């Protein structure tokens, strides 16, 4: 049977028509900021399915457990932490090197005294230093079993309700035919139905971006360009958010970041930028890259004023701060978006905020807390485990990304407050709103070891104790 | 991922470990997740660097010594696998009640671990040198060597009962009894 050209064209148009239709629909919805509510229904349906699957799993588990011998009752208390648990207190440390301090009290140990009081004091000293040694040992062991930091750089622990993604299971055990069937069904739906659709939307988004860049070239007036640019940017990100089936709920829109300010948020994934940009347009700040990314940066610069600096300038903190200051002082510049943690954290905690952007005293800071709901897809990017490209594929084959964005009231630095304290205050506010653990540890610990200063601090504390005894 | 790596915890292994160590299945599974999280290269064993990059261990003055003890006494060839790991941790289960004690978490074994933190040549005695080493690690650069030496000498003088200028395990245990050391060395394991 020969297929004529006419038939080929008919087939192509049959396939294309719905695609064009969907594209038009998505564009309209994005432009008008409407939602058909399909994603929310979809997510509710998923929740029911997950509960069902988990119920089967739990029933199986109970039957296995009841066969095993009865064990120690589970301890409901958290692991005991000694009061002087090791934590970085470096900022409070005196800048002087304590080793150089001459201390006169140590010479008391030179006394070769037979004084029984002295000997018992020594024994007391030995006992208390022994206690410290024991505590140190135990704290070290406790840190090996569980510490506050390393678990922030991997996906959060196994969930109570399994969401039918093998990637979230620690061990894929064969539970029952029904669950495995559900998983397989889910796999097919995600990879063969959702993924192609999302890929299509992604291409649409890229086309929109390129098209709008070309379109804006022809706008002579800078003002009009910026106004259109703002709107176009938001539409672009709304399309992109549909690529990940993102369900975004924004709270407290009255605190949306205004022009000429700095917007600060906790960082979990590259998608954070897309999510925040569905509601507001931002100026990006970053290093000028080459190649494809560099072209993207130049394209984006057409629509708004972004801050790109050269590699050599990146090292110079003053230059960066100056550029930021200039940007803020021009009143119709978009707010600068900054992630002070400097790296992706797994959305259970907020780590140390780098003080760089908090040093700009004239700026108003608009904090934002981004909280992901892990049930439908884990948004955390573990850069040591996945490459960016791999990560994006994982995101596009998850069920959905459900996220709550909380805008917080603006903050400014107070009289007499240091930038470090200000950074801490903003961090605490974000942690409180998002329900995160507020940690002082540096996100840089993902890849680097702690500075030697911290250990020296611990040793200094022990030395102080010896001195006073 | 090779055949060696990401060894799943088999059911029989699990039961075995639970029986011998006294941990519950959930505790073992949790410790297994932890082991895998620390095993970044995914090869089924931990090396010094894996433990040393835990920030709280890294800034602990005794962190390196602790890792020495773990690697040399409980692992082999500078590697420790999960079985060795969990048998080590089994020592530190709280074991006051009779039902919770196995051969691993006796009072003796906890105190012996502490003793091993000092006694690196395994001659069952803590001599002046070994005591000095630990004290130096605790204070870092803050005290002069002769001052620590004085403290060490006085300490040995006080604790040495049999006059051999070193502390035996028995003498060590006697001191530790006064401060309830085995209680301090017990850890709570979450399930």
Automatic annotation (TrEMBL), chain A:
One term of GO molecular function: glycerol-3-phosphate O-acyltransferase activity
> What residue spans carry the region label Disordered?
65-84, 89-110
Q: Could you tell me which InterPro entries the record lists for this protein?
A: LPCAT1-like, Plipid/glycerol_acylTrfase
Instruction: Kindly state a single biological-process term from the GO annotations of this entry.
Output: phospholipid biosynthetic process
Compositionally biased spans, kind Basic and acidic residues: 90-99
Could you tell me which residue ranges the Phospholipid/glycerol acyltransferase domain spans? 261-373
Pathway connected to this protein: Lipid metabolism; Phospholipid metabolism
Entry-linked Pfam families: Acyltransferase
Where do transmembrane segments lie in this chain?
A: 6-32, 175-193, 199-219
What keywords is this UniProt entry annotated with? Answer: Acyltransferase, Lipid biosynthesis, Lipid metabolism, Membrane, Phospholipid biosynthesis, Phospholipid metabolism, Transferase, Transmembrane, Transmembrane helix
Q: What is its main location?
A: membrane
One GO cellular component from the entry?
membrane
The places in or outside the cell where this protein is found are: Membrane
Q: Which PANTHER family match?
A: GLYCEROL-3-PHOSPHATE ACYLTRANSFERASE 4, ISOFORM D-RELATED, PHOSPHOLIPID ACYLTRANSFERASE
Family to which this protein belongs:
Belongs to the 1-acyl-sn-glycerol-3-phosphate acyltransferase family.
Q: What is this protein called?
A: Phospholipid/glycerol acyltransferase domain-containing protein
Q: What is the source species?
A: Rotaria magnacalcarata
UniProtKB/TrEMBL annotation, chain B:
Q: Where is the EF-hand domain?
A: 106-141, 147-182
* The keyword Nucleotide-binding is assigned to this record: no
Q: Which InterPro entries match?
A: Calcineurin_B_homologous (IPR051875), EF-hand-dom_pair (IPR011992), EF_Hand_1_Ca_BS (IPR018247), EF_hand_dom (IPR002048)
Q: Which UniProt keywords apply?
A: Calcium, Cell membrane, Cytoplasm, Lipoprotein, Membrane, Metal-binding, Myristate, Nucleus, Phosphoprotein, Protein transport, Repeat, Transport
The molecular function GO annotations come to:
calcium ion binding
- Per the UniProt entry, what are the Gene Ontology biological process annotations, in alphabetical order? protein transport
Q: Does the keyword Nucleus apply?
A: yes
The record's principal subcellular location, in a coarse class, is membrane
Q: PANTHER family, per this entry? A: EG:114D9.1 PROTEIN-RELATED
This chain belongs to which protein, by name? Answer: EF-hand domain-containing protein
